[in-house]
Amino acid sequence: MVGIVLARILSPEEFGIVAIGMIFYGLVAIMSTFGISSAIVQKKTLQHNHIVTAQTIVTLLGLLIFCAIIAIAPLLGLFFNKPLAGTVLSYFSINFVVGSFGIIPTALMAKKMQFKIISIIETSASIIYGVSALILAYQGFGVWSLVYSPILSVSFSSFASCLAAAYVPKFGWDKLAVRELMKFGGTLTLSSILNYIARNVDFFIIGKMLGTTPLGLYKRAYDLAVFPKEKVSDLLGRILFPFLCEIRDDRLWVKSAYLKTTKAIAFFCFPVLLGFVLTAPELIKVVYGEKWLGSIIPLKIISFGGMFYCLAAPFGSILLIYGKTGYYLILQVCYASMLLIGTIIGVQFGIEGVSVGVLVTLFFVLGLSFYFCKVEVKFSLLGYLSNLKIVFISCGSMVFGVLLLNYLLTEVSDQLRLFAKTFLGIAIYFGVFLFSGDSLLKDLGLRDSNRLLTLFSPLRRMFFYAIHGKKLF
Q: Longest Cα pair distance anywhere in the chain, in angstroms?
């Protein structure tokens, strides 16, 4: 909602300027942690010397990066012919110093699986970001409303994490602890850098070759398409990683937990992404306004890729819990290389061509991720797809129903068409899923949902048997 209101107030060019700064901000953010937080979560035996050494490392990195960004930020503005982009990046660098004090307590809470506390902190930080950004935007701060608000958000998050974890930052240096943390974190950091480059090379090339306005339009579509991945897939992946670290020796349990998580990701993400594809024209016109019409086609294309992206993300947890950082690194090299090629070719056809390059790359990444992980956990392609069968059926039914409705609604307003397509899509998708009696409903705590469908028991028996090949009851 905050993004929608800000998009109404600010221009695509202003979002594009911030996007340029964020490209480099995100890259050095990975370096600022050096994989230390993941190393703490993954480590079986964690001692005091590991914690104080880790805090020293991330603090020194934060200070070093802050100084480096202040020095190079003007060059960024010159490269893109947007001096303001360099100034924006300079202000963003404050977050590396402030944020370094929240990395370790958050990792310690994740290791203890205190995700409820982490979620409360992150939600509160998001609210602070949103409220401050809206206030500043309404007061006419323009692009700076997107700069000051994350500084406030990160400051709160670091303080709250230390408070919640009862953590007081302490510093120390132990050579053995450094080697142990760096051995895991070094390879992971390099992999994360390559992953980040892959996820942002399209922004970089569009900003340089097409300008800030096309970049703002493209990023609007991209942010919408990856929203389900960031809010669902990444969240479940963060919960899955420490859990799998605890049960890594029982590969059957790992496989079962992963398949259930994958189905839950698909259950929540697929209908949203297909909804973007089916309602993109109305969604952009009604919600964001006429100045964002250039985002419609990229949104449709990247949303398809977002489905592959959501499924590929948790595969990294499988590789990391078994220490297969080399495979993870190869995966990121392939990801970055293919997306670079796809973007260079696609940019010749505008942001629509870049979107196609992203789609093809994400499909390739999903296939390669599956190939690397199937050996560790004995996946089969048929079993993996069968696990998602009911999601595919529900999505297919939703697409058919919405396309039919769209054909019928030719003389109505965009607002009414958006409402009707959204309502019908939700009803069909969840209706089919509930009707199927799939076990995921119980896993999600919807144990009593079947009571609502007792009047349709004969039809449900037939439907369940057709899908699962066995009797419902």
A: 72
Answer for the pair 273, 301: CB distance below 8 angstroms, yes or no. no
Domain boundary among 382, 403, 432: 382
Q: Are residues 173 and 26 in the same domain?
A: yes
Residue type, 66: F
* Angle of helix 296-312 versus helix 251-283 axis, rounded to 10: 170
How many CB atoms are closer than 10 A to CB 324? 19
> Which positions ≥6 away from 160 have C-beta within 8 Å?
102, 121, 124, 125
Instruction: Please report where in the chains the tokens 């802050």 appear, as a residue.
Output: 66
pLDDT digits (tens, 9 = 90+) for 330-382: 887 888 888 889 999 999 999 999 999 989 998 998 888 888 887 777 778 88
Say how far apart CA 202 and CA 276 lie, in whole Å.
21
The 10s digit of each residue's pLDDT in 153-174 is 989 988 998 999 888 888 888 7
Burial class (CB in 10 A: 0-12, 13-18, 19+), 384: middle
* CA-wise closest residue to 212 among 91, 76, 306, 339: 76
Q: At what angle do helices 350-377 and 251-283 cross, to 10 degrees?
A: 170
Q: Which amino acid is at 340?
A: L
Task: Please report where in the chains the tokens 């991945």 appear, as a residue.
Answer: 229
The reported pTM is 0.66
333, 365, 382 - which closes a domain? 382
Joined together, the tokens standing for residue 124 give 């509160």
Q: Is residue 203 part of a domain?
A: no
